């Protein structure tokens, strides 16, 4: 297989060389044009002579004797400067070898000389010909002392490169490097098969070959190698030769140890580590890709070299040296990818050690994580100003992840806990917090530590079996397994909470001008202590009532409020209440809710949290922080959640059967009053959306209180059983219609979009509810529900006549206060309800308490309906004319039309004798009377 592969590589190399040789003449001509343009910059006096034939210009340039000594020296330096290697961007490709400090001073002098020459050429440009201008138009060179950039030559590089360029510049170099490595392998293989030398001699020759490749790369770099064509720095020959030599040396040392056993594990380990670190160091002059080769070899070395008695301190001491070396070199060249790879490799070795070795040496784990944090803060984040905002965020995120995972494992794993892992984990978390406060570029350490601590204590708090009720139904949830030494997490949790509060508040004040930084610290100061406290309470406290934890939560709430005041005074406009303040106040609100729940139990939490919504609203009298109003809204969310979990507030068993005066009244009434007061207070101070939200919450809870009390009374104290009856639905409809009128009245006194749109929404909802429930689903005609034994004040009176009156009154009150369609909708609904009441009352007279439709119709009953509808139509017409109500006149027309249709379609076939005659006579008389009535109205209108 190797023979076939080597043949393929050889064929590719031959094709590449042939193509390059065939097109070499074009390269020479391009180089001559670039030299001519450069000479025109340096010697502007001879620029005009550049228009002579190309052969003469080429002869002049190629003859150094025609130039003065100083001019020739300057031209040589400028040519060297124009061929300097580019400094690669941080994309993982090979960077330009060498720092600016490592370059010869002649390059810098050439850059400055070329810049002066360009200025001189531009001064003579006015008298030059068009051809001379074309030769003079080249990119300006960098200032003296800077790293030379590609593209100094006069001709701009093409946007795309052809196949020839790719074959001759990149592929040839890459294939050549691979061919060198394979050639060394084949040579060693052939020497083994032919028996030329012994193993020792072969290893020595292989090592010499690797050193020769490294020396060759260095020699080519020192002899002025430069990439003549921009965009091919990834095929940098010295770096490729050095990488091939490094691979050869790695293989030689490993073969000497692992295959032939010439050297022991210690010597092999030392040599491989030295080769890796030396390769990383050579990357300073050869680029980032070579550093990656050395880093990979350094991290693989412990896998290649095994020992019968492994020493963890030796392993991680070696890894610490590799990490520090790699991060230091990455920081010099600002190679983020190299730094991230070094942190990731070290972190993976640490996690593998923790997972594989039993029992592990936790001191070693602490040591390597401490070195990781120190390398990040002291080396990588050193002098972070001037590198651009967020430059260090990605490399810092890698150690933040691995160190946080290691610390989390130390605190969670029972075996690690028994060995003192909680101490090491706590120390690592505190160290991460301290370094994040020290170095702004290490801010990801704060996120890593915070998330890890939250996960540790969520694991603690969610251990065991949980049993609770949702909507009156028992629910059991099995959590995590309980660790044997979980109690050891109690005091570390308190310590970490205190450290996070102190550091978070202090750093939020220091970074008050930085929105993102201050908010991050404030969020950590609020979230971590709350999660820790709730987890400890759930794991070790009393789930019903626990006063010590309640006091702790209350202290935490006061501390966060004090921290918000402390931070707010340092804001760019003082006391503005920015994002950091919002996080601290949100944490204080959550802590207060926790204190209420821990101290008073779930029964009173709904009531007391609802009442607590007043506190943030009152605080707006002294501080106009935007978060205060939203804290009141947060209380609404908590109360809604509690009511959804347990609508009875105190539990179904403790609710009782007493109507009205039970736990539902304060459970829903007190929050409704508190929300209303909060809305009023916010309207006087900050106003805004929180005020509208609190208005809506007050209205909703007031209606909910009435609805819950109604259901409690209608179902004998049981809320979650039985179907909704027509009587119960009638009360709901009356409540909704009354609420619509109250909202209109409140909106007239204190205009609000919530009140305005709320009144419209309640009106539409009540009409839809009436149409669906009263006319269809719960209609006694279809359900045969008992209408009651009392003749007048029965179910029909409650379900149809009272809602009809309420809808009519609301329609009348909403005139000129709400859109016209709103009043018409309510008016039509009122007329329909009155029609249903009258019709069903007639049927009750004939059928008794139960009026199901399947009981049939009697002739006199049928005639009575026609007469009743005609009388109602006439009455509505008169009332509509006198009051000027168009809705009433339309309703009267609808009723009369229904009566006409009934007489002609139903009475004609169903009635007989005198009843049929009376039906038509009555209808005719009413219609003629209506005609005369309208004619008189029109006559009076014409007379006026």
Quickly describe the structure.
It contains 35 helices and 2 strands.
State the separation between the terminal residues, measured CA to CA. Answer: 116 Å
Kindly provide the radius of gyration, computed on alpha-carbon positions and rounded to a whole number of angstroms.
Answer: 45 Å
Q: How many β-strand stretches?
A: 2
| SS field, number of helical segments | 35
Question: What is the strand content?
Answer: under 5%
Low-confidence stretches: 1-25, 45-161, 163-171, 227-235, 385-392
Share of residues in helices: over 70%
Describe the structure in your own words.
α8 (199-222) runs antiparallel to α9 and α19 (490-510) runs parallel beside α21 (547-568). It contains 35 helices and 2 strands. It is mostly helical and 944 residues long. Strands 1-2 form a two-stranded antiparallel sheet. 42% of the residues are buried. β1 and β2 form a beta hairpin. Residues 1-25, 45-161, 163-171, 227-235 and 385-392 have low confidence and may be disordered. The chain has helices spanning 2-22, 24-42, 54-62, 69-82, 105-123, 130-136, 163-194, 199-222, 237-259, 265-286, 288-304, 312-333, 336-356, 362-380, 393-412, 414-418, 421-438, 444-461, 490-510, 515-540, 547-568, 579-612, 614-619, 626-645, 652-655, 664-684, 688-714, 726-749, 753-777, 780-783, 795-813, 820-847, 859-883, 886-910, 914-943; strands at residues 465-470, 473-478.
Q: Which secondary structure elements does this structure contain, and how are they paired or packed?
A:
Blueprint: H1 2-22, H2 24-42, H3 54-62, H4 69-82, H5 105-123, H6 130-136, H7 163-194, H8 199-222, H9 237-259, H10 265-286, H11 288-304, H12 312-333, H13 336-356, H14 362-380, H15 393-412, H16 414-418, H17 421-438, H18 444-461, E1 465-470, E2 473-478, H19 490-510, H20 515-540, H21 547-568, H22 579-612, H23 614-619, H24 626-645, H25 652-655, H26 664-684, H27 688-714, H28 726-749, H29 753-777, H30 780-783, H31 795-813, H32 820-847, H33 859-883, H34 886-910, H35 914-943
Antiparallel strand pairs: 1-2
Helix pairs in contact: 1-7, 2-4, 4-5, 7-8, 7-9, 8-9, 9-10, 9-11, 10-11, 10-12, 11-12, 11-13, 12-13, 12-14, 13-14, 13-15, 14-15, 14-17, 15-17, 15-18, 17-18, 17-19, 18-20, 19-20, 19-21, 20-21, 20-22, 21-22, 22-24, 22-26, 24-26, 24-27, 26-27, 27-28, 27-29, 28-29, 28-31, 29-32, 31-32, 32-33, ...
């Amino acid at each position: 297989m190797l023979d076939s592969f080597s043949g393929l590589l050889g064929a590719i190399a031959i094709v590449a060389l042939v193509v390059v040789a065939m097109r070499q003449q074009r390269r020479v001509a391009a180089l001559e044009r670039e030299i001519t343009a450069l000479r025109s910059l340096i010697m502007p006096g001879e620029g005009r002579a550049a228009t002579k034939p190309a052969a003469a210009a080429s002869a002049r340039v190629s003859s150094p004797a025609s130039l003065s000594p100083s001019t020739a020296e300057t031209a040589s330096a400028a040519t060297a400067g124009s061929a300097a290697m580019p400094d690669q961007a941080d994309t993982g490709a090979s960077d330009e070898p060498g720092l600016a400090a490592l370059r010869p001073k002649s390059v810098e002098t050439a850059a400055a000389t070329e810049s002066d020459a360009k200025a001189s050429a531009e001064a003579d440009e006015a008298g030059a010909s068009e051809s001379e201008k074309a030769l003079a138009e080249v990119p300006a060179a960098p200032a003296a002392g800077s790293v030379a950039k590609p593209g100094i030559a006069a001709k701009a590089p093409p946007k795309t490169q052809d196949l020839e360029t790719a074959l001759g510049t990149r592929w040839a170099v890459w294939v050549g490097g691979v061919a060198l490595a394979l050639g060394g392998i084949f040579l060693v293989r052939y020497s083994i098969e032919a028996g030329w030398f012994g193993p020792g001699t072969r290893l020595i020759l292989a090592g010499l070959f690797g050193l020769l490749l490294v020396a060759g790369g260095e020699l080519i770099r020192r002899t002025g190698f430069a990439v003549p064509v921009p965009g091919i720095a990834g095929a940098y020959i010295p770096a490729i030769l050095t990488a091939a030599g490094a691979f050869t040396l790695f293989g030689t040392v490993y073969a000497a140890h692992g295959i032939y056993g010439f050297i022991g594990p210690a010597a092999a380990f030392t040599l491989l580590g030295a080769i890796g670190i030396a390769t990383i160091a050579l990357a300073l002059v050869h680029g980032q890709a070579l550093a990656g080769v050395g880093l990979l070899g350094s991290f693989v070395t412990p896998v290649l070299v095994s020992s019968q008695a492994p020493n963890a301190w030796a392993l991680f001491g070696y890894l610490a040296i590799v990490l520090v070396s790699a991060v230091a070199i990455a920081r010099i060249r600002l190679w983020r990818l190299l730094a991230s790879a070094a942190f990731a490799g070290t972190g993976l070795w640490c996690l593998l050690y923790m997972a594989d070795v039993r029992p592990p040496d936790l001191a070693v784990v602490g040591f390597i994580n401490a070195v990781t944090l120190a390398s990040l803060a002291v080396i990588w984040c050193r002098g972070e100003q001037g590198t651009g905002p967020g430059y260090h965020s990605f490399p810092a995120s890698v150690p933040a992840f691995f160190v946080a995972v290691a610390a989390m494992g130390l605190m969670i794993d029972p075996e690690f806990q028994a060995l003192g892992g909680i101490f090491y984990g706590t120390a690592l978390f505190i160290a991460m917090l301290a370094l994040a406060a020290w170095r702004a570029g290490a801010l990801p350490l704060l996120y890593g530590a915070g998330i890890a601590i939250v996960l540790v204590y969520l694991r603690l708090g969610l251990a065991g079996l949980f049993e609770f009720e949702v909507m009156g139904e028992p629910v059991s949830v099995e959590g995590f397994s309980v660790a044997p030494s979980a109690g050891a997490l109690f005091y570390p949790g308190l310590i970490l909470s205190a450290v996070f509060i102190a550091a978070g508040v202090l750093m939020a004040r220091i970074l008050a001008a930085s929105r993102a930084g201050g908010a991050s610290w404030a969020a950590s100061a609020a979230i971590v202590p709350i999660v820790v406290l709730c987890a400890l309470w759930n794991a070790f406290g009393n789930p019903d009532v626990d006063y010590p934890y309640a006091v702790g939560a209350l202290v935490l709430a006061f501390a966060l409020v004090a921290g918000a005041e402390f931070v707010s005074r340092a804001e760019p406009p003082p006391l503005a209440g920015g994002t950091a303040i919002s996080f601290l106040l949100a944490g204080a609100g959550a802590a207060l809710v926790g204190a209420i729940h821990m101290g008073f139990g779930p029964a009173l939490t709904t009531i007391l949290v609802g009442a607590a919504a007043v506190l943030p609203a009152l605080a707006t009298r002294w501080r106009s922080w935007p978060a205060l109003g939203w804290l009141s809204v947060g209380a609404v969310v908590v109360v809604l959640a509690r009511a959804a979990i347990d609508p009875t507030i105190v539990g179904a068993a403790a609710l009782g059967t007493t109507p009205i005066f039970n736990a539902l009244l304060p459970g829903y009434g007190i929050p409704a009053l508190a929300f209303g007061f909060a809305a009023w207070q916010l309207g006087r101070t900050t106003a805004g959306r929180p005020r509208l939200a609190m208005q809506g919450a007050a209205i909703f809870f007031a209606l909910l209180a009435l609805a819950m009390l109604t259901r409690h009374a209608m179902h004998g104290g049981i809320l979650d059983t039985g179907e909704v009856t027509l009587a119960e639905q009638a009360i709901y409809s009356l409540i909704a219609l009354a609420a619509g009128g109250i909202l209109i009245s409140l909106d007239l006194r204190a205009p609000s979009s919530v009140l305005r749109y709320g009144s419209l929404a309640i009106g539409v909802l009540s009409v839809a509810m009436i149409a669906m429930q009263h006319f269809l689903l719960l209609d006694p005609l279809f359900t045969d529900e008992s209408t009651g034994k009392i003749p007048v004040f029965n179910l029909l009176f409650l379900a149809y006549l009272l809602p009809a009156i309420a809808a009519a009154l609301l329609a009348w009150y909403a005139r000129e206060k709400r859109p016209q369609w709103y009043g018409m909708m309510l008016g039509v609904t009122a007329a329909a309800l009155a029609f249903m009441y009258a019709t069903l009352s007639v049927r009750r007279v004939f059928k008794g308490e139960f009026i199901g439709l399947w009981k049939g119709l009697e002739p006199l009953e049928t005639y009575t309906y026609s007469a009743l509808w005609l009388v109602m139509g006439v009455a509505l017409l008169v009332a509509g004319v006198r009051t000027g109500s168009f809705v009433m006149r339309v309703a009267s027309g609808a009723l009369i039309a229904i009566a006409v249709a009934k007489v002609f379609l139903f009475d004609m076939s169903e009635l007989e004798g005198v009843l049929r005659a009376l039906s038509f006579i009555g209808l005719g008389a009413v219609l003629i009377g209506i005609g005369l009535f309208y004619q008189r109205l029109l006559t009076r209108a014409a007379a006026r």
